[in-house]
Design brief:
Layout (H helix, E strand, L loop, with lengths): L2 H4 L9 H5 L3 H9 L1 H7 L4 H9 L18 H14 L1 H18 L4 H12 L4 E4 L14 E5 L2 E8 L10 E8 L4 E7 L5 E3 L16 E7 L5 E3 L7 H30 L16 H37 L2 H32 L16 H13 L5 H11 L14
InterPro entries: Acyl-CoA_DH_C (IPR013107), Acyl-CoA_Oxase/DH_mid-dom_sf (IPR046373), AcylCo_DH-like_C (IPR036250), AcylCoA_DH/ox_N (IPR013786), AcylCoA_DH/ox_N_sf (IPR037069), AcylCoA_DH/oxidase_NM_dom_sf (IPR009100)
Protein name: Acyl-CoA dehydrogenase family protein
Pfam family, one: Acyl-CoA_dh_2
């Protein structure tokens, strides 16, 4: 069935249904096994492998390189659908699509052609960005240095989501002189250890643990100054989280509707002889679905702003690109709190439509709230409304790239 027939509205383009159709059976298969993975903490190795084989990980790669040539709105709609299957899987591919975006925007034609070709060949990328502990907000302790006449990488990263599944790791580091750079390191090239030590109560199967680099070899052409990275990276990465939340909302809406439809027991003080006919229960189901619907529409509207930023950057007009990227950032920021509230409410009130049996662990309905709450903590909303307010009142542009660490 199409998105329209399912009540989620039209897709972001006339060709979207054709683009999405080959992936939907895979999304449904991923959803069918999502509860098992959550309860047993099984990492989605097979699911990532299947997505790669189906060409999903190359969907943003231009058609001339052998990819799907999807626009950003098309990509984010697909990520909503994937997240309805399992939000953990979407989180695991987030860094891969971020690297793809980086390559699509590369000014160096050789670099662009090399990595787009590898992406089309279904190569998969993980990440190494965040440092924890005493890491500084203004510098990385992960450093590219010289050893025996060649470049090597040393350091430790956390929240390396998806890296256990990867062929290559896209790492944020710095040179010995302090210059920040991006480095692509082979996952299996020696000097790389990836640990499955993520212990969050949600998004538990994303492989978001530690990556340790010990004299990991780096080729000179795999080092890129931060100034050459794609400029709308912050709203891009954060919008993946919002798309994931929208997909969680859709999944929760589907489950609560099904369970209400199947429920036989009623309360003596209810309003009908079946739960499926009780208007108060139907109101809850409708609210969950409405929240998910609104979240998805907001995601697609922000994705349009990202597409404009991408096109402006490729157009070469720096002033236009800077303005478009700033607006994309503002559109993202003014969406974060709204979508977060919508999905947190939806994943909480769904239990009001069901009895105490809905808390049974085998149903794993709690995973929707746990996963949403975890994603929202990774996409901190506490500062977003202030940033938007400062823009609205004072014309202050958004801060751009975010970092976390100690203030010293």
């Amino acid at each position: 069935m199409t998105q329209i027939e399912l009540g989620w509205g039209s897709g972001p383009s006339a060709r979207y249904e054709q683009l999405a159709e080959p992936f939907r059976p895979l999304f449904q298969k991923i959803r069918a096994s999502a509860v098992e993975r959550d309860l047993e903490r099984k990492l989605p190795y097979d699911e990532i492998k299947a997505l790669r084989a189906a060409g999903f990980t190359a969907v943003r790669v231009p058609a001339e390189f052998g990819g799907g040539g999807a626009t950003l709105p098309e990509l984010f709609n697909l990520l909503i659908e994937l997240s309805e299957g399992d939000s953990n899987v979407t989180n695991a591919v987030r860094a891969h699509f971020g690297f793809t975006e980086d390559v699509l925007n590369a000014r160096n034609p050789q670099r662009r052609a090399l990595w787009l070709g590898r992406l089309a060949e279904k190569t998969f990328f993980g990440n190494g960005h965040t440092e924890i502990g005493d890491a500084s907000v203004s510098a990385f302790s992960t450093v590219v240095s010289k050893k025996d006449g060649r470049d090597v990488l040393n350091g430790r990263k956390y929240y390396t989501t998806g890296t256990l599944f990867a062929d290559w790791i896209n790492v944020a580091a710095q040179l010995e002189n302090g210059e920040p750079v991006g480095v692509v390191v082979s996952r299996h090239g020696g000097g790389v250890e990836v640990l499955d030590d993520w212990n969050g109560f949600g998004q538990a199967t994303t492989a978001s643990g530690t990556a340790i680099f010990t004299d990991a070899p780096v080729e000179p052409d795999q080092i890129v100054p931060v100034s050459e990275r794609f400029k709308y990276s912050n709203p891009f990465y954060q919008l993946v989280h919002l798309a994931t939340l929208a997909g969680i909302g859709r999944a929760a809406a589907g489950d609560v509707a099904r369970l209400v439809r199947e429920r036989k027991r009623v309360f003596s003080h209810g309003n009908a002889s079946t739960v499926a006919a009780d208007p108060q229960i139907l109101q809850i189901v409708g609210r969950v679905r409405g929240n998910a619907y609104a979240a998805g529409l907001i995601v697609l509207k922000v994705a349009e702003a990202l597409q404009r930023a991408h096109e402006a950057y490729l157009g070469g007009d720096e002033e236009h690109a800077v303005a478009a990227i700033a607006i994309a950032e503002i559109e993202l920021d003014q969406s974060v709190t709204v979508i977060s509230d919508l999905i947190l409410q939806a994943t909480t009130i769904l239990f009001d439509a069901l009895g105490a049996s809905s808390a049974a662990k085998p149903l794993a309905l709690d995973r929707y709230w746990r996963n949403a709450r975890t994603i929202i903590s990774h996409n901190p909303r506490v500062y977003r409304d202030r940033i938007v307010g400062d823009f609205a009142v004072n014309g202050t542009p958004p801060p751009g790239q975010y970092r976390i660490g100690t203030a010293g």
